[in-house]
Amino acid sequence: LCPPGVLPLCRRPPAWDRATRPPPSPLQPPGLPLASCRSFSNNKIQVELDESSGVAMMKLKSPPVNSLSLEFLTEFSISLEKLENDRACRGVIITSAVPKIFSSGLDITEMCGKSMEHYAEFWRAVQEMWLRLYGSNMVTVAAVNGSSPAGGCLVALSCDYRIMAENPKFSIGLNEAQLGIVAPFWFKDTFVNVVGHRVAERSLQLGCLHPAPEAHKLGLVDELVPEEKLMEKAAAVMAQWLALPDHARQLTKTMMRKAVLDRLVAHREEDIKNFITFVSKESIQKSLRMYMEMLKKRKS
Ligand code: CO8
In this structure, which of 26, 100, 101, 112 has its CB flanked by the most CB atoms within 10 Å? Predict the structure, then answer.
């Protein structure tokens, strides 16, 4: 069924049969109990799957800032895998349960003063999360209800569609350069695929964090809506995407994303080695420590 050179994104066999199911019912407004709703949660992530619509709501709930620690990344990947393998699930909306913050990106403490083994394990978990999310067969919608720097931005960029709360205090971008570190090639590829080369080049070099209205102008997010309308809008967008047959949409997604995914898969071990070499340099450790100190000072 696959055109030559196009492979399904995920290890799960494509669910052609799911396309024959009746069209999804619109999601119920947030706050109301969902009909035929299944939920599971762990320390960091809460998931509710509405079986009647085939849509899961994944809420990131790791206060204070949803930083992507090793534990968080592991639980994120496990949750995605569970949904991917669940025949009742066709789409997932990712949002935050922490007020004002979608995700603060990779947990910087995981990259400071740790062993080589730890860096390797951490980086493999970052890769795994991205491979699963960017390569998901499900429709993925990011409902960005707060600031979303660096790794947080990567999570949003890896989805099929991004809706952001229109609060100008919320910002999003790959700001690695501001920390004295460099976004890896697959962060960059994901970014370029969303905003184009010129915007990505400038934004990456300057480590820009774009306020929501600017992010919308650049195409970094697809839509801005008032915060109270965010979930309603995400549900409507999801219903629109799910109205199409799964197999056509999935093969198209594969066609668009495969080259970028394959590039990391082919260079995964090399990428881990590069990360370890880079992050364990004393100059990089110093930059990260200074950045953490700056965050703490800003607070006081
Ligand atoms: N990692 C670890 N701890 C963090 C992080 C983080 N990313 N972000 C915030 N924290 C901590 C703060 O230090 C603070 O700790 P404490 O309470 O002990 O003082 C606590 O979380 C709360 O932070 P704030 O007081 O700053 O909370 P605010 O609500 O005022 O602000 C923000 C929230 C906007 C998210 C702000 O914390 C911020 O800007 N954080 C930094 C975000 C950032 O720059 N992240 C980049 C991480 S790097 C990454 O994701 C990609 C790396 C790619 C690797 C490249 C190869 C080396």
Answer: 101
